[in-house]
Specification:
LIX1; 3 strands; Autophagy-related_EPG5; Limb expression 1-like protein; Double Stranded RNA Binding Domain; about 5% strand
């Protein structure tokens, strides 16, 4: 059961006074000035979902691709924007704490914890061919980064965001699955919308969920024979131009992924198993 606060709640008035939207912008602007971010990166981007009435939903995407949404039931678009900014600011500032940086000590503790919860052993950490070894390697490759940056995406996706052509390629995969199993797209889209909503209401990072929903929506909007034929031609061209890079990235994804990264790869190359993703 959702806890809904009224439009004039004390909590909302507090964040109006704090100008949390401005604070979030200033936080990332300062990181850009300090040279922590690439100059070509955009700052904070907001996306309000069209709605005839409350509850209103707003997403905020941070430089690098991390995405958050409003946590509470919002009675106005401005309130949803402030709440999304609040969640993003809390994660951004918490992410700056020393304990959130990936260090050799952190890696050692994390690997030991992973071993204790799996059937592996500590010796596997030196073998990238094992799940423990892949996890250890990915942590080592991201030494010095924050856990939010590490959780966001694997190395490939952290360096290159999904562009429209890549989305079209992924949508084609789903269109082909729709041909094999009619009705699959609608089921997967309903599940993706549900997962996105649940993740947003718990204040979680939303990039994977939001990308999945948008790609499924794209696929469903072109789920007829003519569009499928056009997408197939584009896909063959895309594969020919990027064949080596494509297979290298897919292999890297499968061999060196973390929990969140593997989910993104699984969505890219396999049918969804219908389970909620973390």
């Amino acid at each position: 059961m959702e806890i809904m606060s009224g439009p004039d709640s004390d909590d909302d008035r507090t964040f109006k006074d704090l100008n949390v939207v401005g604070m979030l912008h200033q936080f990332w602007e300062q990181k850009q000035v300090k040279g922590i971010m690439m100059e070509t990166e955009n700052l904070v981007v907001y996306e309000s979902i069209p709605s005839p009435g409350p509850p209103y939903v707003c997403y905020v995407t941070l430089p690098g691709g991390s995405c958050f949404g409003n946590f509470k039931y919002c009675y106005s678009k401005a309130e949803a924007r402030r709440d999304a900014a609040r969640i993003a600011l809390m994660n951004s500032t918490f992410n700056e704490l020393p304990c959130r940086r990936i260090t050799p000590e952190f890696i050692s503790c994390s690997v030991k914890e992973a071993v204790s919860t799996t059937s592996g052993n500590i010796a596997d950490a030196s073998d990238p061919g094992t799940s423990i070894g892949a996890y250890c390697l990915m942590l080592e490759l991201n030494t010095g980064k924050t856990m939010l940056e590490f959780q966001d995406v694997i190395h490939y996706y952290s360096q290159q965001r999904l562009d429209e052509r890549t989305r079209s390629h992924m949508a084609l995969d789903w269109l082909q699955k729709e041909q094999q199993s009619p009705g699959l797209l609608s089921q997967e889209l309903q599940l993706a919308v549900k997962e996105l909503g649940e993740a947003r209401r718990t204040g979680r990072e939303l990039r994977f969920y939001k990308e999945k929903k948008e790609i499924l929506s794209l696929a469903l909007s072109h789920a007829n024979a003519e569009d499928l034929e056009g997408y197939h031609s584009e896909e063959m061209s895309w594969r020919e131009e990027n064949e080596f890079e494509y297979y290298t990235q897919e292999r890297h994804c499968l061999e060196g992924s973390t929990t969140d990264a593997s989910e993104l790869c699984q969505f890219h190359s396999q049918e969804s198993d219908g389970e909620s993703t973390e």
